[in-house]
NmrA family transcriptional regulator (Archangium violaceum Cb vi76), 277 residues
Amino acid sequence: MLVTGASGNVGAPLVEHLVAGGARVLVASREGKRAPEGTRAVRFDFEDAATHASALEGVEKLFLLRPPTVSDVKRHLLPVVRAAKDAGVRHVVFLSLLGVEKNPRMPHAHVERFILEAGLPHTFLRPSFFMQNLSTTHRDDIREHHEIFVPAGKGRTGFIDARDIAAVAARTLLEDGHEGKAYDLTGAEALTYAEVATLFTEVLGRPIRYPEPGALRFALRWYRRKQPVAFIAVMTGIYTVCRLGLAGTVTPETQTLLGRAPISMRQFIQDHQACWM
Ligand SMILES: NC(=O)c1ccc[n+]([C@@H]2O[C@H](COP(=O)([O-])OP(=O)(O)OC[C@H]3O[C@@H](n4cnc5c(N)ncnc54)[C@H](OP(=O)(O)O)[C@@H]3O)[C@@H](O)[C@H]2O)c1
């Protein structure tokens, strides 16, 4: 099996599950050097077509994601889908996005279409907002400013822990019976950011605020951090969707597929608390 994005939020725990499940795992990365125990490293870069065929040689199953920095999916993901077809890949599990079927302009919708058009047996994983955004993108706001600084108003989010997505991905790759399916994956509850801040306060033992910034204040803070305008626009858009009350979907599919409750926000904070200290 070839795992793309293998060092990421979903890919890293996925590789652990696959190794534990006895799979022979090829770990794809742009460097092609680091490989966890029990796996083999392979150089693979979406933006370098010369790496595609060699990485996919002999691969039966592919875990595919679109790295957040790769925006032109026609240019950089379509060739990978075609190379997978040419290599005889029997099953592609694609990390997509919740609600993608209603947003045909999203890059993930295009990739789903490429896979369908290639006639590749597939499973689409459509997760909600990752809890890990709080330990990566927003970590410094929480650690240094003691606040969650996102323009989400009082909107709710059906957060999911990326480790649960990885566990589902592992099942779909290791078991039969998931071909042709699309799974809407969320956590067990939808929380406001005020509720998330309260959980942080309780677990970390120091006050973490949610000042409910507007979109402009949020964009300005990230602009001053010299982040690309496109990145700021995407983030502002995502949180505006939440502010409008459109991110609170909760589905039972994670629980059904894993046979246990999804990881809660409290558990996520407990497990990662060192990163905000
Ligand atoms: N964050 C959310 O709330 C959320 C919600 C729903 C869906 N998603 C989707 O989930 C995906 C991101 O998953 P993630 O958070 O697990 O990833 P991530 O932690 O952002 O990691 C990105 C991965 O992509 C690899 N990568 C980056 N550029 C590459 C390139 N040019 N060629 C090959 N590999 C490359 C990196 O590997 P190396 O650096 O080692 O090469 C890294 O392993 C995105 O498609 C995003 O839209 C995210």
